[in-house]
Structures are given as structure tokens and as C-alpha cells.
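pinned: reference chain
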Amino acid sequence: EQQVVESGGGLVRPGGSLRLSCTTSGFTLAVYDMSWYRQAPGKERELVARISTNEDSIHYGDFVAGRFTISRDDAKDTLYLQMNSLKIEDTAKYYCNAQHKFWPGAYNHWGQGTQVTVSA
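pinned: its C-alpha cells
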């Protein structure tokens, strides 16, 4: 069974940092493009960051503005998102997505999300 589990969310003050992790199982991470999305209440889900297989392509949402870093460790079947200089508007539920490099429609896995709350 394919599983995607996010962790590392929590409550942090503006300007603080968090490191999210996404642990996968049941599939070979190395052939999946990996992404972080987020969704705030009343808003649509938006792409935070995406990293391709072999890390040859990395893309961030415009709002990231150099504050976040996405990385992956295929040996550990884990994706990371280091978030620095957090803002109140970063408050959202953060989701991990795994999309097969060659069959994205057939093999597309989502986690349940981890809540990030930025508040003074």
C-alpha cells in the first residue's frame, strides 16, 4: 500500500522556522517528482515547491521569495521543506504530493497534511 505521511508542522511565531518532513512507503521515491502544496481556510490549494527526480528541476511558488528550501533523500524515502522567516500568511495545512515521472495520472499520491500556524 502506498503511503505518504507529513510531519513537522506546529505553532511558530512570525520570523520563526519549521522543517516539514514527508515520509513515503510502498513505492520507489526515486521515480517520483515530489511537491509540497498548502491550503489555507477558504482558499484554493497552491503549490509551494516542487523537486524533480534527480533534483535537476526545482520550482517555488512566487510567495516563497527565497524563504523555503525543498530537498529530498531518496535513500530515506523522505521529502523535506525547510521554512524560514515564516509569516502569518504562511498559515495553512501543508500537503505532500508524489507524482510518477512517467505516469503522473496513474500514480499520484497525497498525504493527509500537517498544520502550520504562524501567530504572535
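why pinned: The chain has no helices and eleven strands. The chain has a mean pLDDT of 96.
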